[in-house]
Amino acid sequence: SAVADFHAKLNNGQFAAIAAAAGPEIKNGNVDFTQLIAAVHTKLGTFRSTSRRGFNDNINNGDHTFTASYASVYSTGPATENFVYRLSGGKPVLIGYHVESAALLK
């Protein structure tokens, strides 16, 4: 799955690859997404496991997006992750990533 691929690349330090495959919504933001993902990895540590908690599929005027929410476990503790993807040519493209964890505040 796209989320499993994200976590595999995160654990392997392939932050630039995650950012390069992301959509313009992430690339054109005010934050360098590669640096953001690297910082998340530094704070949260190694990804260990996840369990999907929610899923929303939306098709609006031909634009197909879906949001998936996960309860994840990293080496420094639990995190809640939300991924937003747009289907483009039948493939998911990451257009949003949100993470919450007490480990990010340490």
Explain the overall architecture.
The chain has 106 residues and is an alpha+beta fold. 31% of the residues lie in helices and 45% in strands. A four-stranded antiparallel beta sheet has the order 1-2-3-4. Strand 3 and strand 4 form a beta hairpin. It is globular. The mean pLDDT is 95.
Number of helices: 4
- Roughly how much helix do the residues carry, as a percent range? 25-40%
- Major pleated sheet: 4 strands, antiparallel
Side-by-side strand order of the widest sheet: 1-2-3-4
Straight-line distance between termini? 30 Å
User: Which structural class matches the secondary elements?
Assistant: alpha+beta
Strand content: over 45%
Number of strands: 4
Instruction: Give the SSE order as H and E letters.
Output: HHHHEEEE
Overall average pLDDT: 95
Unreliable stretches covering 5 or more consecutive residues: none
Shape: globular
What Rg, in angstroms, do the CA atoms define? 13 Å
Produce the secondary structure layout.
Elements: H1 2-11, H2 15-21, H3 24-27, H4 33-44, E1 47-60, E2 63-74, E3 77-88, E4 91-100
Antiparallel strand pairs: 1-2, 2-3, 3-4
Helix pairs in contact: 2-4
In short:
Helix content is 31%, strand content 45%. By secondary structure, the protein is an alpha+beta fold. Helix 2 crosses helix 4.
